[in-house]
Amino acid sequence: MSQSSAHPQGIAESDLLMERKSRFAELARLIPHTGSYDLLLDHEIEAGLFKALQLQTCIYISACLVTGGRVLSAEEIVERLSDRRVSLPNKTPNGLLLAKADMTLEFNLLHKCFARIMSGLGFDHLTDVWSLPMNVRVVSGQADPAILNRPYASSKAHSDTWAGEPADSVLLNVPILGDIGRTSLEWLEPPPALGESHLKTLSDFNDGEAIVRQSSKIDLTPKLGHIYFSDCALLHRTVRVNGGGCRVSIDLRIRMKTTPSYKAYVERLRGPSTLGSHYVPFQLWQRVGTETLMVFEETMEECRNKYRTPQASYGTGAPFKMLELNTDRAEVA
């Protein structure tokens, strides 16, 4: 199924694209970067902050692997996640490690660590809302053919709008651990003449193949410890080189501030999201792990019993409630 709608106030495709690039340029002016393109930005995380983020990621994944409280090293985690005999019931076909009740605290501490990095960049006033929870994603170097053929497989070049995400969103990808050299990411830029005409919901990423063939690969090699900001007008996909190991990344989406007419246009375009994304204002997003807790009710054992077979959807949000830590305001929302 595809969605289409009239442009806001009859604005031409080329003008819509120029306005999009202008919004993204505001990000580039505020965020320090080692590389910048019209709709893609490469920011290197300060070394100490990235070391802390790696550690918190290791703590979270160690909890997922049920190590009895032992924190595995990055090398041990990559080795275990690469072992096909290791079964994680909270891992979706596209590699999301969904938080469960068993690792509520570990996930909140990870979010707190990442929120500190994002708060320090000082661009939140340009944003409308942020996705919550953020995604911790494990990408195998050797993909299952059955997963590769799924309608919304991340190895197929796509815009997140094709999976129902809003057309005013920017995707953040943060490689944390593992083999980023051979289990990597790439971005493609559709021809400018398309404007925003390709930003619509599709029932299968393959339905956008004609657009993919017209698109140009952006010359950028991802590295660990960098944040890649990419506008949803670009396409992206997972890339695997034979013999590669697994990779662990964090990703999330932010919606940019736009005019009321453009926001209404985006909502008309938008189909039901297959990503299960939940968005909140930055002021609420940054409080998680400090003033509030995301509380996940489903346990790993309940998850294991529920999903005896691989989950079918592109991505499923992890159901949660917000717990206020301020005792004067404490309540579960």
Please render the helix and strand layout as text.
Blueprint: H1 13-30, E1 35-36, E2 40-44, H2 47-64, H3 74-82, H4 104-121, E3 127-131, E4 135-139, H5 145-148, E5 169-178, E6 183-189, H6 209-214, E7 216-217, E8 226-231, E9 235-240, E10 247-256, H7 260-269, E11 279-280, H8 282-285, E12 292-295, H9 300-306, E13 321-324
Antiparallel strand pairs: 1-2, 2-8, 3-10, 3-11, 4-10, 5-8, 5-10, 6-7, 6-9, 12-13
Helix pairs in contact: 2-4
What is the global morphology? globular
The total number of structural domains is: 1
Gap from first CA to last CA: 34 Å
Structural class: alpha+beta
According to DSSP, the number of beta strands is 13
Question: What's the CATH C level?
Answer: Mainly Beta
Report the CATH architecture.
Sandwich
Low-confidence stretches: 1-5, 309-316
Query: In what range is the share of β-strand residues?
Result: 15-25%
Helix content: 25-40%
What is the mean pLDDT? 89
Question: H/E order of the elements?
Answer: HEEHHHEEHEEHEEEEHEHEHE
- In the CATH hierarchy, what is the superfamily? q2cbj1_9rhob like domain
Query: Number of helical segments?
Result: 9
Radius of gyration: 19 Å
Q: In this structure, how is the largest beta sheet organized? A: 8 strands, antiparallel
| CATH overall fold name | Jelly Rolls
